[in-house]
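Lab notebook page, bench 4
Experiment: in silico fold of construct C2
Operator: M.H.
Input chain length: 369 residues
Purpose: comparison with the prior construct
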Amino acid sequence: MNEVKTYRFIISGGGTGGHVFPALAVAHELRLQFGNPEILFVGAKGKMEMTKVPENGYKIIGLNIRGLQRSLSFSNLLFPFRLISSLFKARSIIKEFRPDVAIGFGGYASAPVLWVAAQMGVPTIIQEQNSYAGIANKILGKKAFKICVAYEEMDKYFSKDKLVLTGNPVRKEIMNLENKKSEAISYFELDPGRKTLLVLGGSLGARSINESIIGNLQTLAESGIQMIWQTGQIYYEEMISRSARINFPEIRIHKFLDRIDLAYSAADVVIARAGALTIAELCVAGKASILVPSPNVAKDHQTRNANYLAARDAALMIPDKEAVGKLVRQALELLNNTDKQEQLKTNSSAMAKTDAAREIVEQLKIVLK
């Protein structure tokens, strides 16, 4: 009787939820389709993947890698040494684990892992989440078997014959939110009769969004709405302290939202950055949103992401530098305009790709044939 092969996959990517959660979504899909494959994550020490991945039941190894800082710093002087040590460690990991395929989702650790894997003859697949490809992925794409993308016209950056339009994988719990509204109201202790604003600053936080909210908190308190506010870990204590000066009992402030599915379900309008994962989730959840692209990203790619939705009337967009003056006013206007909400919901839902994780795994199957 022939023994069934146990496939081995290395998954690398992290630094932010935008890289970690799509990677986890694909790992879950691998377990569904391959039974009990061996899956090893490789991340960057000190980043969120080092806790989120084990929490989801997967093993992870950390590399001592960091990105280059925009300003002159001691950390930049250490970058070449960290990169070289990470390349050596990645080689050791791949030699010992012997993966059938290596999959990269972006983030600091992804580049050395996929580079070494390709040099050692391991097939690689890249998942490019944004409408703009970074330098690392453009280099890695030359050796990759397939490049799974979320936006059209990515042949500006990659060989057209390698491109597969899959969309960005999202967490399973974000799908089918219709039946979670009552649970969400109970979980966040909300008033079902009030309109709900959800404010997301990412896992780390967004300064302009947080300043927009805290600077206009009195206006929000007097508007009759209720709010769920994810400040991010960097700004949490500061926002808690400053918000205590305003009488706004209908506010729910969180460092990080573990039940993002319930937060989306409760929300009438969402304020968020324009990272690739956030946009994918907003489309799958079918939410009316106002996007404030971060200016602190390579080639301003979040503005490109946001413009892609705004041009299709699937979201509103406010530039980061205009957020403090405009964001809260526009959010309140949208909360009071149900026709516009429905228009944004309809158009964002039409852009949703709910099978991205499964389609990426289908590409893996092609590699394994």
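Observations: Residues 74-97 form the longest helix (24 residues). The chain is about 45% helix and 15% strand.
Next step: discuss at group meeting.
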